[in-house]
Specification:
Arc Repressor Mutant, subunit A; 3 domains; about 450 residues; Pectate Lyase C-like; four-stranded parallel beta sheet; alpha/beta; 17-stranded mixed beta sheet; globular
């Protein structure tokens, strides 16, 4: 393998650290040494071999498998572990500081307002003009610390940046426009990489809209997000040359790795996969199907997947760009959805005691989860560090729905039907764990008609 450039290494590390399970793998191997596949499953609490296999494959370059079958960290993996360890320690310290400050704070309303707005303990952060203007309006300054990747928007001018930003500390990579390079160097403390780029016209994104909102306009942003979703998912159907076509007999597990282009997944009477070239970008793809497991890697192509009408054991998605639409009605036992960019629309029916995981650090997700009658506990886990997620759940009457929100940062709008709120005990439970450190989440649950 040839020597990787600094940007390649940065992208590899950031991609690896952007998912909760991959962070857990790195921490486990860093703290406890080499582990077998079975030991990792047990220690991480993962009961699906496909999930662990998927994430181990995504950690290529950071972990390696020894001759006796154990997984261990590479040199780059040890660097990633050091980053995670530093972020975790600083996060625990900041929580202790916040707890101490809360307990010691006088109850009087004449408390002195802090002079700093602190944004910390995140994988990524984008500093936009609107964010800086809002901080300036409060009469305070901005301190950024303990973040893996910080990016300053191109339309931020030097005077505003210099006036509002107090310091940027303990950051792996700081990306700034060329005109801010000198000023950023003066603001940086313990920053591993300061990368400049040429100024380009700013392109507003859904993530930008969501990360800059405040409570009084949450409902407005919700309406904007709802109205723009169909537009985001509009594309030209089968506009290029047919490059690949095959029939699909049995598919129990589906793995999708997408960086640009589009994929449409549905279920039908006849299983089929078609890949078309794109008129707008270069197309690269790889398809691997064996033992009921279908894996598709896509870069810039258009693909249409029709799965046989059977319940799926697993769907795994790693989306860093492009558009993905998934419609399955026969149920999924495990769905592991990870996004760093792009647009994902998911419509899943026939769910029972399923495990649904959404890990979002950028991009847009709209998901509808439809549940059938079942006994047991179904789990939905959302780890939101940036971007927008809209989750709507439809459950049978009498289902106990629990939503637990954690995290400091971001915004969450949670709406549970009054009928479901009155349910105190049930043998059918849907637990939603929502951890928000950035971005915008809209969660709703209603009785299935």
């Amino acid at each position: 393998m040839g020597e990787q450039s600094g940007s390649d290494v940065e992208e590899l590390v950031f991609s690896s650290l952007s998912h909760r399970i991959r962070r857990m793998i790195i921490l486990t191997l860093g703290e406890r040494g080499k582990r077998s596949f079975t030991e990792l499953m047990e220690e991480l609490g993962i009961d699906d071999t496909g999930t662990l296999t998927f994430h181990l494959r995504k950690l290529s370059g950071l972990i390696t498998k020894t001759g006796d079958g154990y997984y261990t960290l590479t040199e780059l993996g040890r660097r990633a572990y050091a980053i995670l360890k530093s972020l975790r320690v600083s996060g625990e310290e900041s929580k202790e500081v916040r707890a101490s400050a809360t307990s010691a704070r006088p109850s009087s309303t004449t408390d002195v307002k802090p002079d700093l707005v602190v944004l910390s303990d995140r994988l990524s952060l984008r500093i936009s003009r609107e964010l800086l203007e809002r901080v300036r309006a409060t009469g305070r300054k901005l301190l950024v610390k303990d973040v893996v990747k910080v990016e300053v928007a191109d339309d931020v001018d030097e005077d505003l940046f210099n006036e509002v930003v107090e310091s940027i500390q303990d950051v792996v990579t700081l990306r700034v426009p060329k005109h801010l390079e000198a000023t950023a160097q003066l603001k940086a403390r313990d920053v591993l990489n300061v990368v400049s780029s040429k100024v380009r016209a700013p392109i507003p994104s859904i993530a930008d809209l969501a990360t800059s909102i405040v409570e009084p306009i949450v409902s407005t942003v919700t309406r904007v997000v709802t109205s723009v979703t169909p537009l985001l998912l509009t594309r030209v159907s089968k506009g290029g040359e047919l490059l690949y076509s095959t029939s699909l007999d049995i598919v129990k597990s589906l793995e999708l790795d997408i960086d640009g282009g589009s994929i449409e997944v549905s279920q039908g009477d006849v299983g089929k996969l078609e890949v078309y070239s794109s008129r707008f970008s270069r197309c690269d793809f790889d398809v691997d199907g064996e033992g009921g497991e279908l894996r598709i890697d896509l870069r810039g192509c258009e693909a249409y997947v029709t799965l046989p009408r059977v319940a799926l054991e697993r769907i795994g998605v790693d989306l860093s760009g492009g558009i993905l639409e998934v419609r399955v009605d026969e149920g999924v036992r495990v769905a592991d959805l990870s996004l760093r960019g792009g647009v994902l629309r998911v419509d899943m029916g026939g769910l029972q005691d399923s495990g649904i995981s959404i890990d979002l650090s950028g991009g847009f997700v709209e998901a509808r989860l439809g549940y059938s009658e079942f006994k047991g506990v179904s789990r939905v886990s959302i780890d939101l560090g940036g971007g927008v997620v809209k989750l709507g759940m439809e459950v049978p009457k009498g289902t106990l729905v629990n939503v637990n929100r954690e995290g400091i940062g971001g915004y969450a709008d949670i709406d549970i039907d009054e009928e479901l709120r009155r349910v105190e005990k049930s043998d059918r439970v849907v637990n939603v764990e929502l951890d928000v450190s950035g971005g915008f989440a809209e969660i709703s649950a209603k009785v299935k008609k």
